[in-house]
Amino acid sequence: KAGVTQTPRYLIKTRGQQVTLSCSPISGHRSVSWYQQTPGQGLQFLFEYFSETQRNKGNFPGRFSGRQFSNSRSEMNVSTLELGDSALYLCASSLSPTEGGYTFGSGTRLTVV
Amino acid sequence: QKEVEQNSGPLSVPEGAIASLNCTYSDRGSQSFFWYRQYSGKSPELIMFIYSNGDKEDGRFTAQLNKASQYVSLLIRDSQPSDSATYLCAVKESGTASKLTFGTGTRLQVTL
Predict the structure, then answer these.
(1) CB–CB of A45 and B101 under 8 A?
(2) Chain A, window 11-40: residues with a beta carbon less than 8 angstroms from a chain B beta carbon
(3) What is the pLDDT along chain A (113 residues), one digit of tens a residue?
(4) Which one of B43, B97, B99 has the shortest CB-CB distance to A104?
(5) What are phi and psi of B95, to 5 degrees?
(6) Which of A29, A37, A105, B75 has the fewest CB atoms within 10 Å distance of its CB?
């Protein structure tokens, strides 16, 4: 079956712009989490959605937001981009917040210039 | 601040040897533990997860958990050059929380 699909794979944006990233989980998976990965900080938790509700949020500014749709697909948005937002953004899905491991998508590489 | 600690490496082992990767965590309430493998330029790939004290084996991989010592490890038997990657330890706290806290990873190099 298809894995976790993230689009786009690569993005280049200018400081001050906003960006929307998309994630389609594995069929049947209803929990979607987002992570930011940078060389200096490693993998940092952004937020998690289950049944269209944000259940958990990491320590990121309000410029980072997300949502989940009824078909479990999720989007995250970053407004007023800063150079430090350049990172690999990873989406992971699981059956539910309490079941099993999390499968990651290939990620979106965001570069802010 | 809940932390997950790993030695960054690189850990170098010869082909065919056993690689031992270690991870400690600070939150005693942690209930689920995961090992991910990440090749350079790729996303993390789930190798194993373990919930109970003791050993869990899957092919060449064995995860070991000691909750009293707050320690989890991954053994890779008969290491192959294709095992060369960064191995990430991740911990999920108890209850309904679903956030994974990751270590910074250990880079493994399997030499010929």
Answers:
(1) yes
(2) 31, 33, 35
(3) 689 999 999 999 999 999 999 999 999 999 999 999 999 889 999 999 999 999 889 999 999 999 999 999 999 999 999 999 999 999 999 887 777 679 999 999 999 99
(4) B43
(5) 75, -150
(6) B75
